[in-house]
Amino acid sequence: MVYVGERMRDFTGMNEGCLIDPSLPVAPCGTPYERVKDALPRYEKLTPEQRGGYLHWLGRGRSGPVDSAWLFLFLYGIERRLFVDGPRGNVSSQERNELADEIRRLAVLYGEHRSFRGYCKNLLAVEWALKGDYAEIPEWVDFTDRFCAGTFNVIFALYVSRNQPIPAEVAFQWAALHPEFVPGTAARRAPDDFRRLFLDAYTRNFDEGIVIHKNRSPLNLIYKGANPSFGNGVKLSIPSLPDPFLLATPLKKIRALAAECVSEMEREGKLGERLRQHGATEEEPLDYLDDTHREFLARLAEKTLWPRGQVLSVCESLAIVPDSSVELLNSWACVTGGIPLIDDGDPLFVDISLLQEILVRESSDAG
Predict the structure, then answer these.
(1) pLDDT (tens digit, 9 = 90+) per residue, 332-342?
(2) Which pTM does this prediction carry?
């Protein structure tokens, strides 16, 4: 799905990032080009050589070697078609299915690109939610991914619509995906222990589960896609499901229980020795990173939860590619601390406690 033309404005007044403007120069096929470094690629900002590479990739059926920017430019167009043109009645069910199938294909073919894979999963989850057939969850809908945090609200709403209590597993997943949830280092090192601790505590406190009475207000989702033209997100309504999030008290109980379990694991220090037992090196921990990625690490260390748009802005200011930079920091943390430093998603989670432990331990080893 591509848009072609010289003018198609987004909410900022700029041309839609995916718009293929035929008036812009394009280098012949096969001309060498540099990889796109923009964290938020736009077709109009590509060089003629990069445009030629993108159009060639489109022409050969969106397969073969790819620049991650091309994946996102194509994804922008599908998001606009589904969630801007779709609500206006301009997209048939058949076309929606075909677009979803293409996203599933690309997610498998190029799944090594973490953020692209996450955005694809969220798009597919939202498409399933909007369809309204909730008899079963298809295998290609993955609600364990942090990119799907907002869409998981549909599962929550389903139990409310049926007057059923919220099961422990559903409550756990909702709490774990909540954009303000901070899991803590101990819980991240021992996720199975954390899950068991929460499920046991939830069952003790709420038996079969918390009951939330349904209301007449429809469930609304905010689709935060990859397309920068969407700004703070596109509001999508699901009239067939109630909004269980109007009553704050039951949800606060779930979040409070998750926080208590995190605190308990931190107090008990489950698996706390793993970090100390991890093989020390003679190098200082930051010696693994170049100057640019040290600066990236320093900026991320300013807070625990990062809206993805802010992360992309930081990457753009440093002229680094988001996915590979996050992967580098996670590889560094696995070597020096035993587990990844960052859980990618929206928001992105940075384990500040883990970072402090790594730096303190290495400082002690050096002493």
Answers:
(1) 898 888 899 99
(2) 0.85
Q: Is 268 helix (H, G, I), strand (E, B) or coil?
A: helix
Asked if 238 and 153 count as a contact pair (C-beta separation under 8 A), the reply is no
pLDDT digits (tens, 9 = 90+) for 106-149: 999 999 999 999 999 999 999 999 999 998 899 999 999 989 99
**Identity at 28, one-letter amino acid code:** P
Among 330, 338, 329, smallest CA distance to 358 is for 338
Q: Is 313 helix (H, G, I), strand (E, B) or coil?
A: helix
% of the chain residues with pLDDT over 70: 93
Phi-psi region of 317 (alpha: psi -120 to 50; beta: other; left: phi over 0): alpha
Q: How confident is the model at residue 26 (pLDDT cuts 50, 70, 90)?
A: very high
Burial class (CB within 10 angstroms; exposed 0-12, middle 13-18, buried 19+) of 252: exposed
- Short-list 254, 270, 256, 266, CA closest to 169: 254
Select from 150, 185, 143, 173 the least CA-distant residue to 307: 150
Nearest Cα residue to 350 out of 305, 311, 312 = 305
Closest CA to 74 of 61, 84, 91, 86: 61
Give domain limits for the chain: 1-140, 278-366
Q: How far apart are CA 12 and CA 335, in angstroms?
A: 42
Paired with 60 in beta bridges are none
Residue 287 in 3-state DSSP? helix
Name residue, tokens 């929460």.
198
Both tokens of residue 287?
A: 């010696």
The CATH number that domain 278-366 falls under is 3.90.1150
